[in-house]
Amino acid sequence: RLHPGQPLGVLDGIPVAVKDNFNTAGIETTCASNMLKGYIPPYNATVVQKLLDQGAVLLGKTNLDEFAMGSGTTDGVFGPVRNPWSYSRQYKEKNPSKSHSENEDSKWVITGGSSGGSAAAVSSFTCFAALGSDTGGSTRNPAAHCGVVGLKPTYGLISRHGLIPLVNSMDVPGILTRHVDDAAIVLGLLAGHDPKDSTTIQDTFKPFELPHSIDIRKLCIGIPKEYHVPGLSSEVQALWSKAADLFKDAGAKVIEVSLPHTPYSIVCYHVLCTAEVASNMARFDGLEYGHRADMKQSTESMYAATRREGFNDVVRGRILSGNYFLLKENYENYFVKAQKVRRLIANDFVKVFGSGVDILLTPTTLSDAAPYMEFIKEDNRTRSAQDDILTQAANMAGLPAVSVPAALSKRGLPLGLQFIGRSFQEKQLLTVAKWFENQAKFPVIHLEDMKRHDCSDFQHQKSVSSL
Amino acid sequence: LASWLPVVGLEIHAQISSNSKLFSGSQVQFAAPPNSLVSFFDASLPGTLPVLNRRCVEAAVMTGLALNCSINKKSLFDRKHYFYADLPAGYQITQQRVPIAVNGSLSYSLCIDNKMSQMVTKTVRIKQIQLEQDSGKSLHDDARSQTLVDLNRAGVGLMEVVMEPDMCCGEEAAAAVRELQLILQTLGSSQAIMAEGQLRVDANVSVHHPGEPYGVRTEVKNINSIRFLAKAVDYEIQRQIEELENGGTILNETRAFDSRLGCTVSMRDKEGKQDYRFMPEPNLPPLILYDAKSLRANMNHQQVVNIDWIRERLPDLPSVKRAKLVELYGILPEHSFTLLNEDGLAEYFENVVKHTQMKPKKVIGWILNELLSFLKERALEVKDSPVSSFLLADLLNLLERKEISSSAAKQVFKELWKGEGKTPLEIVKEKQLELLQDQEELEQICQAVIDRQEDEVGAGMLG
What we know:
The complex is a heterodimer.
Chain A: E1 15-19, H1 46-53, E2 57-62, H2 89-94, H3 116-123, E3 129-134, H4 140-146, E4 149-152, E5 172-177, H5 180-190, E6 220-224, H6 234-249, E7 253-257, H7 265-280, H8 299-310, H9 313-326, H10 328-354, E8 359-363, H11 372-375, H12 380-387, H13 392-397, E9 401-408, E10 414-420, H14 426-440, H15 456-459
Parallel strand pairs in A: 1-2, 1-3, 6-7, 6-8
Antiparallel strand pairs in A: 3-5, 4-5, 4-9, 8-10, 9-10
Chain B: E1 5-15, H1 54-66, E2 70-71, E3 74-75, E4 78-81, E5 91-94, E6 101-111, E7 119-133, E8 137-141, E9 146-150, E10 157-167, H2 170-187, E11 199-208, E12 218-223, H3 226-245, E13 254-258, E14 263-266, E15 279-280, E16 287-288, H4 307-312, H5 318-329, H6 333-341, H7 345-355, H8 360-377, H9 389-400, H10 406-416, H11 424-431, H12 439-452
Parallel strand pairs in B: 12-13
Antiparallel strand pairs in B: 1-10, 1-11, 2-6, 3-16, 4-5, 4-15, 6-7, 7-10, 8-9, 11-12, 13-14
Helix pairs in contact in B: 2-3, 5-6, 7-8, 7-9, 9-10
């Protein structure tokens, strides 16, 4: 098709990967859970269909935390995902083996999550772009840890039809690429109203190209003071300041702003997330599809055994919490209260964006990627609460946000910074992100085992748009 | 027992008459092969999302308007959670917080003392109408210890009509439901055939002493016909009175009506009170309805439901039709009830009137006495009557023109029922039932008879 100049689309022949919580017709879709092991969906998610219609080549389904619950991609039934940077020259140089006997393997770091598989796939050059999902930061977090671009679009811009939901009111399909321009291209192919998803906006979406030369002097960048959270590493703190100065020196207005309800967002998120999870997981009863326990005593006992066997502890924990919050006697105090707090959090952003700020600049993660052995010392709930803190307010407010690789840490691992924009202003958001990307000049990963390729080939990797 | 006041409220589920289901595109059809009308969404396949069916919204608005409700221009959808084999998603999408219509009323009529001579009009308040999904069907096969699940019905649109406890006995409940049924059928928003499960009624029953607060109520389910509704309600009222008079208490429970035994039986609920953990349905935005004032020119009219547009196109409701029949034809109000009560009877009557010189007031007697009793005897519907309205009109014309006597007419009518394709005139000729009109001829015949049988005084054998 490419030869006679008749490609199906911009992505014809381009390899992509898709997180395993998107339905792919005829291809097993598991959500990294025993509940859906062997489940072969009869339909494609809208976003998957759009990629395939372009001629994109689906290389595979990527690993995740079970049902997208987690911030490390360590809690799925297929096991944890290793961050490709664990095997990079940059990381190994900074973390030499102390002794011969020390297992190199024990030092590998996590990808972040829950879209860790997709981030790793893009980071290690196995594909041009990957789909993730983002509910509390699940695309941006692994993007930051894996040194790739992770875009969370505005809620309602991209169809969720076929994305197995975690929190229907916060989920969005996420886009992971190595460059901001590529993210813009993929966004252009995926965005737009889908009649099958009643939460997508009706307005016609106009795909855009990002400008080559960008003038940021008219921009106002906001630095939310509440994002100086206690666990923030000094490294990330310094990087954040440096970035702010970068914008200032280039002529943009950089001011401190306040999003006062930020401290409440984790708890609010916990209530709303678990409540929706409890509801969304109710369909997994072993009757119509998926795992069914070999329990014939009664329907109830079959349900109970199926759900015990099919779900991991993280999922079951959230279901129990969620059902608790939805009980009649608790509903007002928890669910409704949390909805009100959510409104306040969203209003914080409205006020700030309404006062002349165009883009917010924040860190994406507290620090660089933790070694797996360290990470698993705390449970999923604790980790999620810690790691989501900088990313999930954007999900509460439905705003677009993108993590851009900024620099390497002292340990030779990627650090990303986050930009948050106004609803449906992805063009402006990505333009600013691209400007920053050009300034940051984030290094290419030097993967040691890539003996056949000279890594310098990839140093000046151009994005698809210039091919 | 005059010291007890029974209180009856109703929750009626009417299946919406639409081509496809409430939130998915699969077809709505009665008695299709099991699991042949199930979309991915109906089966709750992960990742599927609900999309609201416009026709179902219109049906609910029509019904709300016909029941004098306020239509909520903004209504919301909620999830009601419970685990059951015929509820694939583990929750039903319904409208618990803000339903589509509220605060209406329904007028219905009863005959006093079963005589059809005195009718009294009563009103029941309509609390609300909400849109919700129907569940699938479970068939319990106890012999093989299994349950068979058919999801054809899962997701079909329902209107739940809640009637306040303004009724006091089985007869009132039955009459109210009958009137609702007629209204739904007239609107076309539901075919409301109870035998096909398109109209399901649950009754809430309690009793109390006048001046005291309402008693504990029970919910009676599994009522399959209007007749059984009256029986079930009356039985339950009696049961509660007897229980209380004997010093017992009434449990707030669900009971099933056993039509064979004619009684209600406790459906012992193992878990006690269910907490449905209601939660807003996050995949459906609020349902916004418009009227002539709020509608703007730039709106896509395909995406918009206009209440005023629907109101302007409402057909004549049964009460209006009855009033018109009474006014047009001078028949009694109770006659108009019977006419509308039988499917097609009013049209039949009107057609006969159109084609005969006989006055409507006389025609109605033939319709309600002769025709209807023949139909009932043979359990036939009006549309299956072997005697068409044209044939009856012909017959009545003969009678009106005094070509036959009224007893002869009845004989002819009986013959017509055999459905042998003969016209009334042919039967009259065949059986020599003509009345002689000519005075002279009559005199001649009489004389001949007298002459032939001189000692016979003979009552008018030609009379």
